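Below is a filled-in request sheet from our internal design queue. Each sheet records the structural input a requester submitted and the sequence that came back. We keep these sheets so that new team members can see what a complete request looks like end to end.

REQUESTER: design group, bay 2
PRIORITY: normal
MODE: inverse folding
CHAIN LENGTH: 578
BACKBONE (tokenized):
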């Protein structure tokens, strides 16, 4: 049974009043408010205000209090922490041969087998849709797609994300200010629109019953999600510090997965990412309240599921106050995993002294200990509460802006504040990278936004693998933009679905000495329209031009062999057929 006091109930999680939240414009939603809403980077909590410190008396050290009813004491002892490692961290790219390129790294994560599956399901879905048309024909889908075309389609999406024009047709515009030749040469606008319409990931013959409350709501993208989660772990060993946070996939269409958040509309994705690099390790799309309920709350279950691949390896996890509770810290510690998090003051089992204490001034703190867990209160602009199992109670400091001195000055803080400030931003870093040049295309179908989320996450992770593996890069500063451009080139690979026009036949200059000696020959290549029939507007019974493989060797014009060429003998060519 779900406990509303142990973790935030899901009705409150689905939305809240934005007017109550002091939004920081340059921060993700999860960093807006420490004590009431979500995670915080402590360097942004407030500016130094000497007026507050001048008006308040100096803080007097409180004497140690007896153990409270939850077992917390105000006297702390060193925390026992098993060192992380030794392990070989970073990319695992043994599958690659010599001199791998950007596409090789991408296909480590986005498997070629997934491309083949997309081809199969796209062609099947296209046939189903076209069969329902009145005449059973779509003039812009005369042939099935191929793996080469699907890869080229994804390459085009990357280029569109870089150029980012308002409408799709602008990429094919003849206006030099708008058109993108790198897109135009790959496929026609109509072919692109049809691929965008028909692209499919799952077999509709196996759709789950909508009446089944336990159905997989992510059936349309399930194989893609599972592939990404597996390959992300398979090819990267994370460092000690991992952050867990929420990400939002913007979406305004109709779906039970959509919820209201300050982003403002979208689908929530729980993410675990390496703190140092932003490499996305695991993710989970939130689909609403689970039918089987939850014992310790939604936040507890999310953290335990996302961190389960790292149990027993002594990693340090960082997450915000939506997820944290005393029970979660204890359960993680039992799995050989340490944690550090902000915590809401209404959580069950926190020290009584975290709520009932005298007013603190800026930089002052209180610390309580229960077994191997510390509960800390630190005052910045307001009280900020922390739970941690990965550090002892040691003095440290963070830099804050002093309005009086017009400079950043050191503010005392417990060591937990410094650790949280340094390592909580992994998911934010991953989100930031995913936001650059993303491949999201407007659609009414929710699963296409999730497809773009996975595709962009694969690109970002592939860039991290490439950056840490390849020493001889094309540039000294090889940025994510450079990687995306090169990856698009490899995905397109010279592919073009445009019809190649036959080369124009060059006009032959007629020498006066040759007049009257025209010779009938058979031209190589396809038939061309007879010039005489064309001038006389003759057509076949089906309305097509009369064509012939024969013509004049001097004039290089086509004529019907038995009827029109004899009339041409001795004539001077006056028109060229192209």
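RETURNED SEQUENCE:
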């Amino acid at each position: 049974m779900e406990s509303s006091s142990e973790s935030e109930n899901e009705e409150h999680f689905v939305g809240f009043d934005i007017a109550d939240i002091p939004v920081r414009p340059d921060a993700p939603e999860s960093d807006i408010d420490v004590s009431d809403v979500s995670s915080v980077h402590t360097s942004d909590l407030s500016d130094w205000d000497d007026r507050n410190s001048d008006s308040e008396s100096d803080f007097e050290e409180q004497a140690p209090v007896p153990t409270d009813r939850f077992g917390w004491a105000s006297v702390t002892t060193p925390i026992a922490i098993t060192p992380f490692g030794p392990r070989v961290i970073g990319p695992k790219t043994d599958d690659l041969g010599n001199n791998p390129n950007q596409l090789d790294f991408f296909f480590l994560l986005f498997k070629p087998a997934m491309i083949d599956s997309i081809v199969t399901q796209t062609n099947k879905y296209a046939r189903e849709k076209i069969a329902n048309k009145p005449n059973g024909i779509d003039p812009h889908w005369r042939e099935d797609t191929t793996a080469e075309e699907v890869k080229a389609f994804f390459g085009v999406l990357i280029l569109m994300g870089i150029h980012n024009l308002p409408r799709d047709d602008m990429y094919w515009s003849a206006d030099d200010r708008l058109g993108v030749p790198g897109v135009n040469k790959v496929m026609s606008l109509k072919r692109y629109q049809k691929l965008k319409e028909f692209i499919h990931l799952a077999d509709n013959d196996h759709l789950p019953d909508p009446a089944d409350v336990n159905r997989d709501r992510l059936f349309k993208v399930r194989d893609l999600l599972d592939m990404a989660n597996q390959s992300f772990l398979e090819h990267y060993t994370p460092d000690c510090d991992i952050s867990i946070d929420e990400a939002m996939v913007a979406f305004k269409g109709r779906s039970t997965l959509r919820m209201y958040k300050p982003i403002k509309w979208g689908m929530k994705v729980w993410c675990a990412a390496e703190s140092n690099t932003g490499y996305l390790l695991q993710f989970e799309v939130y689909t609403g309240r689970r039918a089987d309920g939850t014992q310790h709350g939604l936040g507890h279950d999310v953290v335990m599921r996302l961190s389960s691949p790292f149990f027993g390896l002594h990693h340090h996890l960082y997450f915000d106050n939506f997820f944290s509770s005393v029970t979660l810290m204890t359960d993680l510690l039992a799995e050989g995993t340490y944690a550090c998090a902000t915590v809401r003051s209404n959580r069950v089992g926190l020290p009584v002294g975290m709520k009932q204490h005298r007013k603190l001034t800026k930089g002052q703190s209180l610390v309580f200990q229960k077994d191997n867990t510390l509960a800390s209160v630190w005052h910045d602009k307001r009280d900020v509460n922390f739970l941690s199992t990965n550090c002892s109670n040691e003095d440290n400091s963070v830099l804050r802006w002093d309005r009086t001195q017009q400079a950043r000055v050191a503010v005392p803080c417990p060591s937990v504040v410094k650790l949280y400030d340094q390592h909580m931003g992994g998911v934010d870093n991953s989100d930031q990278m995913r936001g650059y040049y993303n491949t999201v295309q407007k659609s009414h179908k929710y699963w296409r936004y999730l497809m773009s989320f996975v595709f962009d996450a694969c690109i970002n992770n592939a860039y991290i693998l490439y950056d840490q593996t390849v020493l001889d890069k094309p540039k000294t500063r090889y940025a994510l933009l450079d990687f995306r451009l090169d990856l698009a080139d490899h995905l397109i690979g010279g592919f073009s679905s445009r019809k190649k026009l036959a080369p124009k036949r060059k006009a032959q200059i007629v020498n006066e000495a040759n007049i009257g000696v025209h010779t009938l020959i058979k031209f190589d290549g396809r038939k061309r329209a007879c010039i005489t029939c064309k001038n006389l507007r003759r057509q076949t019974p089906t309305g097509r031009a009369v064509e012939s493989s024969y013509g004049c060797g001097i004039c290089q014009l086509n004529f019907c062999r038995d009827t029109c060429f004899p009339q041409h003998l001795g004539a001077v060519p006056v028109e060229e057929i192209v």
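SHEET NOTES:
- Residues 17 and 303 are 25 Å apart (CA to CA).
- Residues 10-63+219-403+416-431 form one domain.
FILED BY: M.R.
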